[in-house]
Amino acid sequence: GTVDVGETVTAVVDGAVRQATARNHTATHLLHKALQQVLGDHVHQAGSSVDGQRLRFDFSHMSAVTAEELAQVEQKVNEVILQALPVTIFETGIEEAKKLGFTALFGEKYGDIVRCVQAGDYSMELCGGTHVANISQIGLFKIVSEGAVPAGVRRIEAVTGLSAYQYTLQKEQLVAQLGKNLKSAEKDIISRVEQLAAQNKELEKEIGQLHAAASKNQVDDLLSQVKEVAGIKLLACEVEAADMNSLRDMSDMFRDKLQSGVVVLGAKSENGVNLIVAMTKDLNKQGLHAGNMIKEIAKVTGGGGGGRPDMAQAGGKDYSKLAEALGLAEGLVAAQLK
Questions:
Q1: How much is the average pLDDT of 20-29?
Q2: Three-state SS at 85
Q3: Mind listing the pLDDT tens digit for each residue in 189-233?
Q4: Any alpha helices (H) in 183-243, and if so which ranges?
Q5: 157, 142 contact by CB (below 8 A)
Q6: Tens of pLDDT along 79-104?
Q7: How far apart are CA 283 and CA 286, in angstroms?
Q8: Which residues pair with 272 in a beta bridge?
Q9: How many CA atoms lie within 13 A of 152 on its CB side?
Q10: What element of type H or E holds 173?
C-alpha cells in the first residue's frame, strides 16, 4: 500500500513477540554473569542478537566450553530465574552508573545519561533493550549450541519460555521414538545402544575374518594363472574384493606367495573398478615401477592413480574395460624391462 501526507497511522506492537524477545534479552544478561562465574572474569560480551525465537550471545574465551561447563552455566541461569528477582530499570549519569557497579560493554558509545538494567543483585548492565519485569517471567532457559566464531570468541545460542518448552518436548519425543525403535525402556536406551555397538563391532570382526578367508581361497585358486615374462613372474587377474583395503591385502598375499614377481589385480567397485599393482622390491632394480604401470592400466578404464615403485593403486569408471586393462600388464612389464 501507500501512505499519504496527513494520514493517521496506528503502530501496534505484537505483544507475544515483544514478551518473548524481552525474555531472551534479559536471559542474555543472566547468561553473561553465569559465564563469568563458571569460566572466569575474562569473559566479556562480544556481540548478541535477540528475537522472539531465541537468543545468541558471543563472548571472549580462548577455548571450547566443555559439556560440564555448559551444564553448570545453564543450571546457574535457571537457579537465578527461580529466585524471581525483580528487574529494575532507571536512568542516571554515566559516571554514577559506573560507581554503582553497572557493566558497560567494551566498544559501545554511551551518552552522559545511561539506562541501567538491574536483575536483583545478580546482574547490573547498561542496556537500552526491552526486558521482563521479573526474571521469573523468563521461565525455562536451555542452551542449544556452543561454538567458535572468530579467534578468541565463542557463541552460545539458547531458548527461553515457550521455545524452551518446545525444544525440550522435541528432545523427549526423540528419546521416546528411539526407545520404541530399540524396543527398550527409556532408562535402558544407553545400555541398549552400547550393547548394539558391541554386537556390531563383533559382526564387523567376523565379516573381516570371512573376507580374509575368502581372499586366501582366491589366492590359492588364482596362483595357477601366474605367467612368466622374461623370467619374471606375473599374475594379472580380476578378483572379488569388498574395497581397496581388501584388494591391497590380497595383493600382499599374492606377492608373498610369489616371493619375486608382479601382481596386477582389478575388482568391481560401487563406482566402477579398483586397481592395484604390487611387486617385490628386487624388481625395482630391474626398471619395473608400479606407479608407472598403474597409470597406463587405469587409463583404459577411464581412471587414474599412482603410488610407490613397489605398490600403486587407482580407481576406474568403466568396469567393462577391466579385462582389457589387465591385458596390458604383460606388455608393460616387458616394456619397462627394456
A1: 97
A2: coil
A3: 999 999 999 999 998 888 877 776 766 666 667 887 889 988 999
A4: 189-222
A5: no
A6: 999 999 999 999 999 999 999 999 88
A7: 5
A8: 269
A9: 6
A10: helix 161-182
Long-range pairs of 207-211 with CB within 8 A, sequence gap ≥ 24 = 211/242, 211/246
Reduced to 3 states (helix: H, G, I; strand: E, B; else coil), residue 79 is: helix
Cβ proximity of 282 and 302 under 8 Å: no
DSSP-derived secondary structure for 186-200? GGGHHHHHHHHHHHH
- Long-range contacts from 59-66, C-beta under 8 angstroms, 24+ separation: 59/32, 59/35, 59/153, 59/154, 59/155, 59/156, 60/152, 60/153, 60/154, 61/35, 61/152, 61/153, 61/154, 62/152, 64/146, 64/147, 64/148, 64/154, 65/39, 65/146, 65/154, 65/156
94 contacts 114 by C-beta, under 8 angstroms: yes
Cβ atoms of residues 305 and 264 within 8 Å: no
SS3 at position 278: strand
Q: Report residue 29's pLDDT band, with 50, 70 and 90 as the boundaries.
A: very high
Distance CA(134)–CA(118), nearest Å, equals: 10
Strand partners, 45: 59
Within its chain, how far is the Cα of 260 from the centroid?
46
Cell 579467534 sits on residue: 151
User: What is the average per-residue pLDDT within 163-175?
Assistant: 94
Residue with cell 522472539: 52
Contact 297, 323 (CB under 8 A): no
Q: Is residue 105's pLDDT more than 80? A: no
Among residues 263, 258, 255, which one has the least CA distance to residue 238? Answer: 263
**Average pLDDT of the chain to the nearest whole number:** 91
